Amino acid sequence: MTNFSYCVPTKIVFGKGVEEQAGQEILACGGKKVLLHYGGGSAERSGLLGRIERSLEAAGLPYVRLGGVVPNPRLSLVREGIALCKQENVDFILAVGGGSVIDSAKAIGYGIVHDFDVWDIFSKKRAPTGCAPIGAVLTLSATGSETSASTVITNEDGWLKRSGNSEYIRPRFALMNPELTYTLPPYQTASGGVDIMMHTMERYFTAPADAELTDRMCEALLKTVIHNLPIALANPEDYNARAELMWAGSLSHCDLLNAGRDRGDWSCHQMEHELGGMFDVAHGAGLSAIWGSWARYVYQHNIGRFAQFAVNVMDCTLDFAHPERTALEGICAIETFFHSVNMPTNIKELGFTLTDAQITELAHKCAFDGTRTIGSFQTLNEQDMAAIFTAAR
User: Fold this and answer.
1) Collapsing DSSP states into helix, strand and coil, what is residue 151?
2) What's the average pLDDT block by block, 10 residues per block, for the chain (393 residues)?
3) To the nearest 10°, the Cα dihedral for 319, 324, 329, 331?
4) Is the pTM of this model over 0.90?
5) In degrees to the nearest 10, what's the CA dihedral of 298, 303, 307, 310?
6) Separation CA 260–CA 249 (nearest Å)
């Protein structure tokens, strides 16, 4: 087990009706004026925004609204939010939604405290030195952004999807009511479940390290999602299944599952970011479309790891004489699961066919114009990325 530091300061308030505590939680954080940040009209139609507004009003907190966040959140709305917050002297941001809303809120939080263009952080021209405080009311079990130090924003100029990660952007609190996920469309629920799994698998398939307890936590989380996701799809108002998925989403991306080894591989995430930037696909669906091709490209680098996954997560039987067969069986098994919840296992199943020129562009962007490699399980260069995109199309 390698040395590690683990500190997640986000306060989790979990259960039915907890969204009504928003005002008091913001007061406890010292907030005086709030940006209420959200996505489309569903938060308003469901009455969620009204309940939160009443909570803010009861706490004596003035607020301004900014809706319109879309999947793969846009830089243009982030800039609009920064300008609004500076104009209105906002000092606390409350994100009401899923990962896209929370990521957008984090980017706005960066912009409030810096005097340069926020994209400089995402393009790695400048390092952040702070962020305005953020809270979250979670409505989707998926990205884990409510506890993570991660954010991803899409710049419409070139359709570049880039991360701007730092410890400054972990939310101060997350209000997590599984009932708020009841009305999600099945595709969103399934895509979110895959995202949770992939956050875990990116950490599981990484550079070798003896971290048995962390391995077992990863395996248990994956099995929990595999068990509960079909239940939530079959019965959207099964509170226990929704609760298990929501809690799994937070644990999958709060860095607990890095403990005792490096921070993860993240190749599939980096490649999916380019798909999301170019085609605006749902993040979880894009990940499931790429993962099998990545796995078959790299599994021989550590066959034992893939065989362990096959046995401990997918309940395959270990072929002691030929562990490679078990490794490949596990890859097939997870793809079968993805199909069982109507998630794609190749890019064509996302609804489009990549041209050779698009593959070249995707790989070149992912390699930051040929200046970087990705991955820790196996290091991938631009040519490797192109080969995986080709296999996945």
Assistant:
1) coil
2) 90 98 98 96 90 98 97 97 98 97 98 97 97 98 96 95 96 98 96 98 88 96 98 98 98 94 92 94 96 98 97 97 98 98 97 96 96 96 98 97
3) 150
4) yes
5) 10
6) 20
